[in-house]
Every structure is written in structure tokens, then in C-alpha cells.
């Protein structure tokens, strides 16, 4: 049986990356002041669909690109670092772009059968997984933007926007324009 390509292909590319100095000039703070949250679906790699170069953005990916407690803590962590570099003032530190997409595998959470089996597998409460489902990405992304804006750990200097990526056209459409926690009442536009 042929061994699957897996990491070997990627490691070959890494050698080229290193040899050609692809890592040079990269900085620990995102140069576009952008923090992208998106799905782990291989079709939704923000480096490709947003044309991001190395060190231009912070990126967190999980199932569905959902804003959960862990993601909120990650944004808060970057906010704290950014504040250290840029104390005082009220100019924005960075923008968080939450991106959900159509045809998302996270729609599986709407199936009772899937949810029960998965909850059993990971030792979680089945009912807590219900709201992980992404059926209408425009709706879930608006929910997640509101969740992030409402989080006490996120300072108002962090702007938050919501977008939907269409895997069939390659286009990202803005659903909730950038705003901060003081703009809770922004209604999602479709
Ligand atoms: Zn997805």
C-alpha cells in the first residue's frame, strides 16, 4: 500500500520556504491589524481566500469558526499584548473578522443522531452542542459577532465584523460591518 502523502509533501515545501527566506521580515504583531476567526474546513484557509501573507493576520480556526469561551480568551490575549504596544488613546487596536461559510460541516450538529454520538465520543453534554450548528452562516456569524462584542474581556478598542464566505463563488460578503462593544445593536444586513 502506498503511504499517504501527509506531512512529507508539506515538509518538502517547507525546505523551499526556508531556503528562499520566506520567513524573513515576519513580525509577531499582525501587520494588517487583523484577527481572523474561521472554520477549519480546508476550503476556508484565510491565507488563500483573503490573500494574506505571512504575519499579516492572527488566525484562529475551529469547527464552524465559532466564537466560544476559548476564542474569546484568545482575542483578549492579543488585545492585552496590543495594548502594551499601544497604551492609552482610543484608536482601534485591531479588527476581528469572524467568517462563517456555506456548506459548513458544522451543520452536522443539527442532527440528533450525530450530536448524541459526538457528545458521547468527547464526553460532553449533548444539549450544549446544539448551538454549534452552522445552518445559515449569515445568522450564526451575527450571533458570534454579538457574543464577542458582549464579552467583558474584549476592550472597546477592538473592532469586530462578521462575514460569510461562499465556497461556490470564492466571494466574502460582509454581514455585520466593523464595530465595537458599544455598537451592540447593529442589525445584520443580508
Ligand atoms: Zn465549516
Characterization of the model:
The chain has 190 residues and is of the alpha/beta class. It has helices at 6-19, 46-49, 69-85, 112-122, 137-150; strands at residues 34-39, 57-62, 94-101, 158-165, 172-179. Residues 39, 41, 64, 101, 104-106 line the site of zinc ion.
Q: What's this, in brief?
A:
With 190 residues, this protein is of the alpha/beta class. It contains 5 helices and 5 strands; from the N terminus they run H-E-H-E-H-E-H-H-E-E.
Provide the fold topology.
Layout lengths: L5 H14 L14 E6 L6 H4 L7 E6 L6 H17 L8 E8 L10 H11 L14 H14 L7 E8 L6 E8 L11
Parallel strand pairs: 1-2, 1-3, 3-4
Antiparallel strand pairs: 4-5
Bound molecules: zinc ion (ZN).
Keywords:
32% helix; 19% strand; globular; 5 helices; 190 residues; binds zinc ion; alpha/beta; disordered C terminus
Q: What is the rounded distance between the termini?
A: 49 Å
Number of helices: 5
H/E element order: HEHEHEHHEE
The major β-sheet equals: 5 strands, mixed
Average pLDDT, rounded to a whole number, is 92
Small molecules bound: zinc ion
Helix content: 25-40%
Radius of gyration: 18 Å
* Low-confidence runs: 185-190
**What does the oligomeric state look like here?**
single chain
Q: How many β strands by DSSP?
A: 5
Q: What's the shape?
A: globular
Write out the strand line-up for the largest beta sheet, numbering strands in chain order.
2-1-3-4-5
Amino acid at each position: 500500500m502506498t503511504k499517504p502523502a501527509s506531512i512529507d509533501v508539506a515538509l518538502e515545501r517547507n525546505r523551499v520556504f526556508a531556503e528562499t527566506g520566506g520567513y524573513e521580515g515576519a513580525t509577531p504583531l499582525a501587520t494588517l491589524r487583523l484577527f481572523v476567526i474561521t472554520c477549519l474546513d480546508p476550503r476556508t484557509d484565510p491565507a488563500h481566500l483573503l490573500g494574506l501573507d505571512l504575519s499579516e493576520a492572527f488566525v484562529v480556526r475551529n469547527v464552524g469558526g465559532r466564537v466560544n469561551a476559548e476564542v474569546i480568551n484568545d482575542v483578549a490575549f492579543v488585545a492585552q499584548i496590543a495594548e502594551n504596544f499601544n497604551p492609552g488613546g482610543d484608536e482601534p487596536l485591531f479588527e476581528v473578522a469572524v467568517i462563517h461559510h456555506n456548506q459548513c460541516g458544522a451543520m452536522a450538529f443539527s442532527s440528533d443522531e450525530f450530536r448524541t454520538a459526538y457528545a458521547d465520543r468527547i464526553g460532553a453534554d449533548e444539549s450544549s452542542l446544539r448551538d454549534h450548528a452552522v445552518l445559515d452562516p449569515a445568522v450564526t456569524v451575527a450571533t458570534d459577532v454579538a457574543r464577542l462584542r458582549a464579552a467583558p474581556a474584549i476592550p472597546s478598542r477592538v473592532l469586530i465584523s462578521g462575514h460569510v464566505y461562499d465556497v461556490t463563488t470564492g466571494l466574502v460578503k460582509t454581514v455585520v460591518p466593523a464595530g465595537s462593544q458599544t455598537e451592540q445593536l447593529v442589525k445584520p444586513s443580508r
